[in-house]
Design brief:
The structure holds two protein chains of two kinds. By secondary structure, chain A is of the alpha/beta class. Chain A has eight helices and nine strands. Chain A is 40% helix and 25% strand. In chain A, a hairpin with a 2-residue loop joins strand 8 and strand 9. Chain B is mainly alpha-helical. Classes of the chains: A alpha/beta, B mainly alpha.
Chain lengths: 258, 267
């Protein structure tokens, strides 16, 4: 244990059971490593970008970071409150925008006083205007995301995990979110940032983690990690269809628990 | 023991969260229809009228229960049933229904049974107020014993929450639990003397029927409102009821505690 680190992952495995292809229901199930032997340490106040292709285990990692899911093996120690920025979770379609601020605030565990404090800020940030008094079912998907994001960001956790949250909404709103994230970063929060937009990540993050096939490929300065990752993706793209398929199958085979 | 304290603490520190969830879910339900809260009252009234016609006039031919006529006797019983029954059937799926939330944020799952019960309690308080008004209008003399229904209300709340803790976790393993509970509730509705009396049942079966916790609650409401019957007159039943609640609560909190981080993997 080192006090310097706010997040410590030590040999973390996450294993899922796979359903059988065959109809025999009681045949032994295959097990699958969503994460395999992942270890890393993160200092307080770091801005960490997490890269990886689809299905590499990013979301599993973010769930474990957020304390929603627990690892199968290994140990995770987190010093501080963590929050996953989940945009669409907890909005009720029948209720108005204003009521939803209270609902989601309460779901996230804010006190009544705190909800009153944030309401003004959320209304302003979400730019809903007259729609504030309309039921959320009438909102466009962009509006919903704006409302959801604005509420989530008003929590005051020590660790913030952003999983693909900023890829919704238009450019202007994304820019606004980035501004807000930058503001949070100056307050010394630790931020995990998961995105496929490599430019956004390069711009925003200092440290990087790259996971592939459930395993930690590299950890270090963001720019270097992003270069490595981009090379990897380019290499993969250059391969023929058949090679790509074979490569993926090999990767999958490695993840089956023996 | 640790798990019991954990669940109690989680519920007590999150009272505002429980209250808000229940409040806004009720509000959302009401927004769904034009007449809103009207249906919360009209639905049970329609069912009561049907039961009264079938059981009161059809089967009992208007005969009363002891000193009380059948209609008030039945509506008190059925009002209690209309409280506990949805608590139990909705309690089973309370975690599963919130899967969108528990997979997206850190959430104290053990408060979910309480939110369901609180939501139903709101409807129950409206209904029981209505029923008491009817009793008063029909000439039943109010007395201090009427306040004893608060005790039995508390019994019903504790029972529903404890049972919800167990069934909701089991329902995460397999959704068959929900089907099973629904089937059992249909059976229990007739195995609890809500629409009929036990006078024709042989003594040895009566003892088994009295072990049904719903019997204790339903008869308790009636005892308080009609027969000036204190719960102190039934020490054995009371002890058995609370013993059962404690056992269920301990089992329920152990399940909650053990699986609190596992729910996401069960979906």
């Amino acid at each position: 244990m080192n006090e310097k680190y706010i997040v410590e992952f030590k040999n973390v495995d996450k294993i899922y059971k796979l359903e059988n292809k065959s109809k025999r229901r009681f045949a032994p199930k295959k097990q699958f490593y969503a994460l395999k032997d992942v270890s890393f340490n993160i200092k307080k106040g770091s801005i960490v970008g997490i890269l990886g292709t689809n299905g590499s285990g990013k979301s599993t990692l973010s769930n474990i970071l957020a304390g929603i899911s627990s690892p199968t093996n290994g140990s995770v120690s987190i010093r501080g409150e963590q929050a996953l920025i989940a945009i669409k979770a907890g909005l009720n379609n029948q209720l108005t925008g204003l009521e939803n601020i209270k609902v989601k605030g309460a779901l996230l565990g804010l006190s009544k006083k705190r909800i009153q404090e944030i309401t003004e800020g959320v209304i302003e940030f979400a730019e809903l205007g007259e729609f504030l008094y309309q039921p959320v079912k009438k909102y466009s998907s962009g509006m919903k995301s704006r409302l959801g994001f604005s509420i989530s960001i008003c929590l005051d956790p020590d660790i913030i995990i952003v999983d693909e949250a900023l890829s919704v909404g238009d450019k202007a709103f994304a820019a606004k979110c980035m501004d807000k994230m930058n503001e949070l970063r100056t307050t010394g929060k630790t931020i995990f940032f998961i995105s496929h937009s490599i430019n956004q990540i390069r711009e925003f993050c200092e440290d990087g983690i790259w996971i592939e096939g459930g395993e930690l490929k590299a950890q270090g300065k963001m720019q270097e990690i992003a270069d490595l990752y981009e090379n990897y993706v380019e290499d993969f793209k250059k391969k023929s269809k058949k090679e790509q398929k074979q490569f993926k199958e090999e990767l999958f085979e490695e993840r089956i628990v023996k | 023991m640790k798990s019991v304290f954990f669940v109690l603490k989680e519920n007590i520190t999150n009272l505002y969260r429980i209250f808000s969830i229940a409040k806004y879910e009720l509000l959302a339900d009401m927004r769904d229809s034009k007449l809103g809260i009207f249906w919360n009252i009209a639905n049970p009234l329609i069912q009561m009228a049907t039961f009264w016609f079938v059981f009161g006039i059809g089967i009992r031919k208007g005969r009363g229960v002891g000193i009380v006529s059948f209609l008030p006797w039945m509506i008190v019983g059925i009002t209690v049933w209309f409280f506990i029954s949805p608590c139990i059937t909705k309690g089973v799926s309370c975690i599963y229904e919130k899967r969108n939330i528990i997979t997206k944020m850190k959430f104290p799952v053990s408060i979910l049974p309480a939110t369901i019960v609180l939501k139903e309690l709101f409807n129950h308080i409206i209904m029981i107020t209505l029923v008491i008004t009817i009793l008063f209008v029909r000439g039943h003399q109010p007395n201090l014993m009427w306040f004893q229904i608060l005790y039995y209300m508390f019994c019903a709340i504790c029972f529903s929450i404890s049972l919800g803790m167990i069934t909701s976790v089991l329902n995460m393993f397999t959704r068959d639990v929900k089907k099973l509970v629904t089937a059992c509730m249909r059976m229990l509705m007739y195995l609890t003397p809500i629409l009929w009396t036990m006078e024709n049942i042989p003594e040895k079966y009566q003892i088994i029927m009295k072990m049904n916790p719903l019997y204790y609650i339903v008869e308790g409401y009636r005892g308080s409102l009609f027969f000036q019957d204190s719960f102190m007159n039934h020490p054995a039943q009371t002890a058995f009821f609370w013993g059962l609640i404690i056992v269920m609560f301990v089992i329920g909190s152990n399940l909650m505690y053990r699986f609190k981080h596992k729910f996401i993997d069960m979906l």
